[in-house]
Write a structure and sequence with these properties.
The chain is an alpha/beta fold. The chain has 2 domains: 4-115, Rossmann fold (3-Layer(aba) Sandwich), CATH 3.40.50.1010; 126-158. The chain has helices at 8-12, 27-33, 40-48, 59-72, 80-92, 101-109, and strands at residues 4-6, 23-25, 52-54, 95-97, 113-115, 126-131, 138-139, 153-158. The chain has a 3-stranded parallel beta sheet with strand order 1-4-5. It has a 3-stranded antiparallel beta sheet with strand order 7-6-8, with no helix packed on it. Strand 4, helix 6 (101-109) and strand 5 form a beta-alpha-beta unit. The radius of gyration is 18 Å and the shape is elongated. Toxic component of a type II toxin-antitoxin (TA) system. Processes pre-16S-rRNA at its 3' end (the D-site) to yield the mature 3' end. Pfam families: PIN_6. Keywords: Hydrolase, Metal-binding, Nuclease, Toxin-antitoxin system. This is Endoribonuclease Nob1. Belongs to the NOB1 family.
Amino acid sequence: MDFRILDASAFYAGVPFRSSDDCFTTSLVYDEIKHIKKNHDALGTLLETNRLKIREPDSESTKKAIHASKETGDFPQLSKQDISIIALCIETNGHIISDDFAISNVAKNLGLKILPIMTKGIKDVGKWVHYCPGCRTNHSSGTECPACGTLLKRKLLKD
């Protein structure tokens, strides 16, 4: 079975409403998007016809998603909903439909399939590092350079 896993941006872009394919999301994402009034009846119809399935990832997949996002440095940019989508993709070996850069970066670093919606998708995959523009040192985390006190910036180290 081909698992199409939707994040919130896929719903806002209308992906499940324009397709007859089955889609999956998590309850966290559904709770985030169910307020869409103009499409509320459409969401109900998707659920009633079983074209939209709400499925929770297992705890092992969630741990892997969290670990991978910390490895790439994307963890601070990801919501619980984002983590749940990545975890569900790990568990089902499906493909994520999203334009979110942080989700895409973690997914691609894990070798998962990701399909962009309204963009060309990300070109560069890698790991984020914090660096000090003052003394030009790299740091694994933080907001301020421990050596000189300058505010740290982030850059992507491409794979």
